[in-house]
Amino acid sequence: MAIEDIKIPQMGESVAEGTIGSWLKKVGDRVEADEPIVEVETDKVAMEVPSPVAGVLVEIIAEEGQDVEIGALIAKVDTEGKAASAPASAPKAEEKKEAAPAPAPKAEEKKEAAPAPAPAASSASGDLMPMSPAVRRIVEDYNLDAKSITGTGKDGRLTKDDVMTAIENGSARTFSAAATAAAPAATGPREERVKMTRLRKRIAERLKDAQNTAAMLTTYNEVDMTAVMEARNKYKDLFATKHGIKLGFMSFFTKACCLALKEIPAVNAQIDGDEIVYHNFANIGVAVSSPNGLVVPVLKDAQDMSFADTELAIANYGRKARDGKLTVDDMQGGTFTISNGGIFGSLMSSPILNPPQSGILGMHKIQERPMAIGGQVVIRPMMYLALSYDHRIIDGREAVTFLVRVKEALEDPTRLLLDM
């Protein structure tokens, strides 16, 4: 027997500890080198920790929900061991079945007494499907019918790849709002207490800290999205064929913000003690959704990125966020943030700063509205824009000018090509 210790790896200079999220393997399972075995949540990201060696997981030392320091021992792997065989576990299952034969009639009686609620509850919770806690969280977040997804893991278990593939190709069924609402009412408790994840607690702390320390103010404008939508519709097929990625709106907004930040550098600056640090580059944070909440990976040197580079990077971050594979490096170094509440239907909001940044742009839903143009009322696809900024270093004139420059670039995309 050759035992190899599994320890929490270094996750970045500013990360000192994490919380065990969920174990992807159980004692007795075979693990391969570099195969993820556990999810660890830090105050920045939730990430999977791979096994450095191949072997059999023989001991789990850190339980789910336990706080652990970087370098702490969490498990042990026997590099010469063999995984428990299926026949060996079969008699145990048979013994359990023989030891408790009585519940079957009770279940039958309950089914006869109340036939409707039972299937609804089991379908909504997905309890009949084998899955890890991490996969179950994704299924519940997306309100999916787990039974509609084919599991490729051991013993038919659902994996993250199974679920995310089903979501992307549209093969996963979702529960109706009525069925989802009915299930908890029939069998679940009236309320539930769940411990906040380390990531969620850190997000809460940072957002509250921004409100407490920054002199935060928000200015608004609206943009006519006609020109952007026409350009996108005209070139989207050619763009996808050439670059292998869809042409979205974020590349237009990212490029427009880079031009505006170049003209109004205070929006791209930050306070450090009694000094103001002006950045001669634009590291744009893009807010994306993950099963653990909103995360903000960073497009490094976005001012040098093409439209294709931007769309590919954002799509890659979106996949990594859903799979829990974002790294600390992906999340660090941002100088400005773009948040798109419009994808969820938000018409207007005031985004909160992402400290130590001094500015954040909020995008919103595109909605057709009657507009007075040239003395006539016409219908145009309009979007409200919101710029929240730190009034300690950004004056109102600078904030308004920044937002106007973004508006002008989007309403006349030629400016993006001419750097105007």
Walk me through what this model shows.
With 420 residues, this protein is α+β, with helices and mostly antiparallel strands. It has helices at residues 86-99, 103-113, 117-125, 133-141, 160-169, 177-187, 198-213, 226-243, 250-263, 307-323, 328-331, 396-411, 414-418, and strands at 3-7, 17-23, 30-31, 36-41, 46-50, 55-60, 67-69, 73-78, 216-224, 269-272, 275-278, 284-286, 288-290, 293-295, 298-299, 336-340, 359-363, 367-373, 376-390. Helix 3 (117-125) crosses helix 6, helix 9 (250-263) crosses helix 10 and helix 9 crosses helix 12. It is globular.
Describe this structure in a few short sentences:
This protein has 420 residues and is an alpha+beta fold. The chain has helices at residues 86-99, 103-113, 117-125, 133-141, 160-169, 177-187, 198-213, 226-243, 250-263, 307-323, 328-331, 396-411, 414-418, and strands at residues 3-7, 17-23, 30-31, 36-41, 46-50, 55-60, 67-69, 73-78, 216-224, 269-272, 275-278, 284-286, 288-290, 293-295, 298-299, 336-340, 359-363, 367-373, 376-390.
Distance between the termini: 68 Å
Number of helices: 13
The shape, in one word, is globular
The name of the CATH architecture of the largest domain is 2-Layer Sandwich
Query: What is the assigned CATH homologous superfamily of the largest domain?
Result: Chloramphenicol acetyltransferase-like domain
Mean pLDDT across every amino acid position: 80
Question: What ranges have pLDDT less than 50 throughout 5 or more consecutive residues?
Answer: 85-100, 104-128
Counting structural domains, the number is 3
Main sheet, how many strands, which sense, barrel?
Answer: 7 strands, mixed
- CATH level 1 name of the largest domain: Alpha Beta
Rg value: 26 Å
Query: Approximately how much beta-strand content do the residues carry?
Result: 15-25%
The percent range for helix content is 25-40%
